[in-house]
Amino acid sequence: MNLFHNSVAVLTLTTIIAYGLPVKAAEPQSPTTQVLHRTIKVDNLDIFYREAGPKDGPTILLLHGFPTSSHMFRNLIPALAEKYRVVAPDYPGFGHSSAPSVNEFDYTFDNLANVIEKFTEKVGLKTYSIYLMDYGAPVGFRLAAKHPERVETLIVQNGNAYDEGIDNAFWKPIKAYWKDRSKDKGDGLRSLLTLDATKWQYTAGVRNVETISPDTWGHVQPLLDRPGNQEIQLAMFFSYGSNPPLYPKWQEYFRKHQPPTLIVWGKNDQIFPAAGAFPYKRDLKNLEFHLLDTGHFALEEDGAEIATLIRGFLGKQLTK
């Protein structure tokens, strides 16, 4: 009998080692760090969001980029939720939120910002820090410029507000589309919606591609491939042209209101290169600036470092 139990113990230990399983059982997730997955109605749209953290804690609003969703924050949310209320919505047409056709909803950054503004009010976000990444920057800066009293701090991760940040080869065909919204110009951008392009966004500029989970494009690509979604994304490419004319307004917001700002920027990003990070130094006095040796989706490779930087930054800036 003892021999049997010893054999089982050896086999179990061998299995644990072979599969890299923890020897000690994982601690149960605390109620505050457990991520909840919710949906709320905003203007007859189902807006999906992830939330964790104490209801009475300082709030962080996480605004995602293209072509992903709140899924990009799946690891960051529990890393911040011990102390902060962390809320990450999916925009219309993205993730698990409603995706009406382009004939049913006007896919513009103005409209996305309006929906997210109403979302924040519905879920009771009175003041908050904003994490702005990629598309999250033009959405979030619209909110900040309209309601500066609501914004406690900014966390900018590869999110642009300066002409220098879009003066590179990636933007040339998109800028051409802003000038000529023809079918030919639009069709030329459909290559940005393919699986290869999605993988490239996640892997270009990273130190070690093996650290990037295929669950990323495994989540994104089926959503991009939904019927009608390419038309949604082309509408958003065109609407991005509405952002550069607002840069002076956003920069004036920086200079006038001086929101404490943390820059955590993947410096090898070929979409929003580091050239777009440095101009923030012109306008912001209370600025913490970090260039990370990674690519566009910096959270995938340097999420733990970014979480540490955010906790340190907010710990100094917020008194709650």
Automatic annotation (TrEMBL):
**Could you state a single Gene Ontology molecular function term?**
epoxide hydrolase activity
Keyword GTP-binding listed: no
- Which parts of the sequence belong to the AB hydrolase-1 domain? 58-302
- Protein name, please? Haloalkane dehalogenase
Q: Which UniProt keywords apply?
A: Hydrolase
User: What gene codes for this chain?
Assistant: dhaA_3
> What InterPro entries does the entry give?
AB_hydrolase_1, AB_hydrolase_fold, Epox_hydrolase-like, Haloalkane_dehalogenase
Question: PANTHER family annotated for this entry?
Answer: AB HYDROLASE-1 DOMAIN-CONTAINING PROTEIN, HYDROLASE-RELATED
Gene3D superfamilies given for it?
alpha/beta hydrolase
A Pfam family name for this chain? Abhydrolase_1
**EC nos:** 3.8.1.5
